[in-house]
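Lab notebook, design round three. We kept the backbone fixed and only want residue identities now. Task for the bench partner: fill in a sequence for the structure below.
Input structure tokens:
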């Protein structure tokens, strides 16, 4: 598999808001080379000394990629760290620190050729030794969150100064995708033991962190020694923290920021206020998660009844103002691994009568009562409020309890409180990451509910060096999961991104739910 090509294109999303997308298309088509700016509806000159400001809802959990358990951290990491491989504007695998990669010797090893002109910000050279050191740290560090992703890497071998070989003890077809994420984020080996690495990143990225105020802002300066001088179009970048969508909206209006994402209810407001807006590029899927270790959801028929009681399209239309798409798998329909045979219609769709039948078959002809944990986020609470009366119609009585959003996984899976909760999936590098929660021993599967068919399909999905080779097993994995169903998806989530006329995007850029800032800047 070459580092410069990918054999399956990820199709573009057929989204709503045709009018706004037409505006976006005109904006992007106006973006050219040199200093011509794509800045909403007007043109202008890029300010090489400008500051680009983005507003998000949280801090990074850490600036140490090997200790990060939060995929949203990549918003911050892509400024300060380079990855071995990156995704281009078409979501194709493309070179970054690795110029090419190839599976060799019957797919028992992965060989990567590396850039020879990269230096970490502390002066340490980037080379094969640095890659080896990073992967070995991620594999052996006691607090590493990435050990599982390296389970099939037996050893890392330095072939020469800029060639590294990963010897595998099992299939590793997921590795190129994983190297676009935390696993591929390269830290200076000289900084491994820095006691402040969690708040003072030492990478080779296009920017360096210069100020970090948890809960408020992180500020970055352009790395003037960066190997790709076209990457940082602004001299400074800021990521501000604001959980209120109303406040984020106001920050754009008052010139305090250039880009953010909003609640779907604010889409029309953004347009009326003269802001540029479109549904975000996103891999996030909202799901319903069930405690299968205790009644009533220890019976799969009750889990199936819950799925049939929910009108997904009504949730998308009523709660998210049409910005989303009902799904029955943990990937959006435009993803290269999407299984067209698993849809939210028919077998997995809205069917209240079937829900009642399943409850009766499971021994609950008079219905069930259970506790629903609701993360304290506006959209999660709105979904729960919409679902309660739907469920009541089939005899499922949900008693809701709002809890702090960051504590939800520990509360539900660790302490096993509650019977159900609704949550939003984070961006993922490879589809097997989404489904590894259905393996025995996974944190989100403390009950070890799985099946031999699923486990084999998941393992088989790691085999193959091209998407075409992997897709049959990935589809078997998606279909086998439906026979386990400790959770099920509601909809693919495309919240509206909004930006001001000062924002400069490179050609082909789509504002994302987890945006990147390569080639992004501001007008003078």
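Proposed sequence:
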């Amino acid at each position: 598999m070459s580092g410069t090509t990918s054999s399956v294109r990820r199709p573009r999303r057929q989204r709503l808001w045709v009018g706004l997308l037409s505006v976006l298309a005109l904006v992007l088509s106006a973006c050219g080379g040199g200093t011509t700016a794509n800045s909403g509806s007007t043109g202008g000159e890029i300010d090489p000394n400008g500051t680009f400001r983005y507003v998000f809802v949280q801090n990074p959990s850490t600036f140490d990629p090997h200790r990060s358990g939060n995929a949203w951290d990549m918003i911050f990491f892509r400024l300060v760290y380079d990855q071995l491989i990156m995704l281009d504007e078409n979501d194709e695998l493309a070179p970054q620190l690795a110029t090419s990669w190839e599976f060799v010797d019957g797919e028992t090893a992965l060989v990567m050729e590396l850039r020879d002109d990269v230096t970490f910000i502390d002066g340490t050279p980037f080379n094969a030794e640095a890659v080896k050191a990073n992967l070995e740290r991620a594999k052996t560090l006691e607090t590493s969150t990435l050990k599982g992703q390296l389970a099939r890497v037996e050893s890392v071998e330095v072939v020469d100064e800029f060639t590294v070989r990963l010897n595998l003890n099992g299939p590793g077809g997921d590795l190129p995708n994983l190297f676009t994420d935390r696993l591929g984020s390269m830290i200076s080996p000289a900084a491994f033991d820095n006691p402040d690495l969690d708040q003072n990143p030492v990478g080779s990225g296009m920017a360096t962190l210069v100020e970090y105020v948890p809960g408020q802002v992180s500020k970055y300066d352009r790395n003037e020694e960066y190997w790709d001088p076209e990457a940082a179009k602004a001299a400074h970048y800021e990521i501000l923290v604001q959980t209120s969508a109303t406040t984020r909206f106001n920050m754009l209006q008052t010139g305090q920021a250039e880009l953010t994402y909003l609640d779907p209810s604010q889409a029309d407001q953004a347009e009326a206020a003269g802001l540029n807006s479109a549904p975000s590029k996103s891999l996030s899927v909202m799901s319903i998660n069930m405690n299968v270790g205790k009644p009533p959801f220890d019976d799969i028929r009750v889990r199936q009844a819950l799925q049939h009681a929910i009108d997904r399209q009504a949730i998308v239309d009523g709660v998210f103002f049409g910005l989303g798409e009902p799904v029955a798998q943990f990937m959006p329909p435009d993803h290269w691994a999407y299984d067209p045979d698993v849809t939210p219609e028919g077998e997995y769709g809205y069917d209240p009568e079937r829900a009642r039948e399943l409850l009766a078959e499971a021994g609950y002809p008079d219905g069930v009562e259970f506790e629903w944990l609701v993360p304290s986020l506006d959209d999660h609470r709105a979904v729960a409020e919409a679902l309660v009366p739907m469920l009541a119609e089939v005899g499922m009585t949900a008693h809701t309890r709002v809890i702090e959003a960051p504590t939800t996984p520990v509360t539900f899976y660790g302490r096993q409180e509650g019977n159900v909760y609704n949550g939003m999936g984070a961006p993922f590098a490879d589809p097997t990451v989404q489904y590894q929660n259905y393996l025995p021993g996974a944190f989100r599967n403390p009950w070890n509910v799985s099946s031999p068919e699923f486990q084999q399909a998941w393992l088989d999905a790691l085999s193959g060096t091209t998407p075409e080779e992997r897709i049959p097993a990935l589809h078997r994995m998606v279909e086998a999961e439906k026979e386990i169903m400790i959770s099920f998806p509601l909809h693919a989530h495309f919240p509206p991104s909004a930006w001001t006329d000062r924002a400069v995007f490179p050609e082909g850029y789509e504002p994302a739910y987890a945006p990147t800032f390569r080639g992004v800047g501001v007008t003078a």
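Keep this in mind before ordering anything: Residues 1-43 have pLDDT under 50 and may be disordered.
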